[in-house]
Amino acid sequence: MSGDTAKPLTLPSGPATLCFDKDDFMKNTFNVDTFVMDCRRCVPLETLRDDLHIYLKILRSAMIELINKDYADFVNLSTNLVGMDKAINNLTEPLGQFKEEVLCVTSAMDNAIEAVEEKLNQRQKIKDKKACLQGLINIVQSVEKIEKLLGLTHNMEPSSGARLNGQLIERVATEFNKLQFYVTKSRGLPLVEEVKPRIASITSTLQYSLEGSFLEGLDNNNVDILRQCLRTYALIDKIKDAEALFRKHVARPFMEEVITEDFLRTSHQGLKGMYIKILEFVPKHCHILKDITSSSTSGDVVRGYDFIVNSVLPEIVCNIEARTPSIFAPGNPNLFHEKYTISMDFMSKFEQQCGSQASVKRLREHSSYQVFMSRWSLPVYFQIRFQEIAGAFENSLLSGLNNAPDGSDMYLHASFHLWESICHCWQPDVYLPTLMHRFLKLNLQLLSRYSSWIDEIYQKENQKSSNTNILKNERASTPASNNNSSSNNKQNGLEQNNQTSTSCESEPITLGQILCLLADAEKTSERIFPMFEKDIRPKLESIGYQNIDLIKDAFNDSQTNVLCNVPKFQNSVIQELTCQCSVHLKQVADIPRLFRRTNREVPTKTSSYTTGLFKPLNMFFSEHKAILSESRKQAIAKQVLENLAQQYYTSTSDVLTSVKKMEDSLKRLKKARGTGVSTGLPGMTDDDKIRQQLIIDIEHYAQQVESFGFDSKTLHGCTQLSALCEEARIAMTNPNPSSSSSSALTPKPAS
């Protein structure tokens, strides 16, 4: 067949209107279901079917063209394959021989590779044995060399008499370091076990010489000897031995002399004096070692040592724990706070004696430092403070609404103790930075307890008021027939009522106490954030706390809780004052009785009840002017006057309605009798006198409202009363009967 068989098969092109791509059929990932689903998103199934039929016709046409094009090849295909079987059989035998030859070569190569690998393994073993043998030779040579330098034989015991000089020690240390390396590599071999006693003898002699030279250098302050000894210790990887030697021979005698209970008792500065003495140790005994190991100005620095952290600190902590454990006792919180503060100040100064920040970090991570910090029973200290602060505040709540001590700017004993308790948490002799979170929580708990206490008072008073109202309703609803019961039952009932009233009615809270509570609650809320900025924020910043706004939000919530009951208490004050003042409004209903069929003169003065209407309010303001703020006074007065105006309007409206009904009834009666209504008679009717009296009283009420500093026109109740006045004037049949009645427009107070 003509054509290149390697050329990829391409499908014939179709119309551009087809809803699919013809190349999708040639993809290896072609799937019928996926293909149909993709096409359905674009066209209906009918369209897809039609397009597929169109393309099928195109494919058939293309196939026919292809067959026609290569028709001769298709016809001659069977002819071209004649003799192909014989040709294939002729190739089979040569290919079999070639395969056998390849297998022989492969086998020979595998045998050669195995032989080479075996030789290489043998060679590696020989090399390892030679290295091991060389290591053992090096060990023996090093041991003999060191023994020769030290003047030892393998039969001698470790010498403890003579010490080596500095240069010889350094030579021995260098060789000893090599010996340790060789021994580590040859560990477990029999020869190493044989020379271990000799190595131990060398180690003892070397350490004895090093210790002697090191202590001699410390005694004489010989920098060269100390540097050489420290370098040697570092060379043989015995840094901890040098630090332990310094701790044992230098730090321990000093600390055992200073850190004692006797020193605490005899020193006029007590614990502080002991710490001062301890702090003198580093500059006095460690300055040379500190210079050599950190910032030497004359010679190389010997790295890897930290005598302050690894020698001095453990000895200090060990002696404090063992010899002066009394400083950790938390029983007396004031004494504990003093000792803890002094100890933390000592530790801060001790950190300053470290040579670098890295040394400070090592100190804080040292186990002795952790032990020292954990010995302070801070949770116990806080629990004692909690009982002391919260207990005193809780006891003050039990006293109820007693007055605060003289000289306090609070009015109630509980409020005074609340603020004292909050401030006490941040006193320098109470607060500890490590207990910051606990004191913050205690502050919030105190404010929460104060809020709940105020709420409890309100709930109790509210319950008492409800019980009183229920008792009044029960007494009012008791039928009169019960009074005719037997004397025995009556006496029993009276005794039972007396017991009930005695048990249910405790001493009620006064309006003055409520005002004191409101004033204290507002004063407490006003002080919270100044106290936060002054006392709490600096302490939070000093310990590196970042989310200060979260703490502030918590105090903001506490402030809201403290004030949440203030409006309720203020409303109860307003209701009580309204109730006291409104008692006099009952006399409004008696005005018609004073003028009907009494032949009284036209009223020119206010009624007697108006003089007592505002008396409870004025007395309240006069008695509590020291407690009441001007804003609260105005708020209470405005609401009381508004409530009174509403009740006054109701009472007056009822009277005028009654008068109107009576007047209409009389007119109908006269009309029925055939008697005309007289309109020309001089003087006022009784109904007009009643209206006139009410008008005078209402105008007097408006004047009293303005005397409190309010515009009567701005109060809804006063506006209603004014409208009622106008209605009464319009309803009067003879508003100006005589000249004497003109004075009614200017009300005079009742005598």
From TrEMBL:
Q: Which domain of life is it from?
A: Eukaryota
List the protein's name. Conserved oligomeric Golgi complex subunit 2
Compartments where found: Golgi apparatus membrane
Residue ranges of domain COG complex component COG2 C-terminal in the record = 374-698
Q: Which GO terms describe its biological process?
A: Golgi organization; intra-Golgi vesicle-mediated transport; protein transport
Positions of the Conserved oligomeric Golgi complex subunit 2 N-terminal domain:
18-91
* Chief place of localization: Golgi
Q: Which GO terms describe its cellular component?
A: Golgi membrane; Golgi transport complex
Q: Which InterPro entries match?
A: COG2 (IPR009316), COG_complex_COG2_C (IPR024603), COG_su2_N (IPR024602)
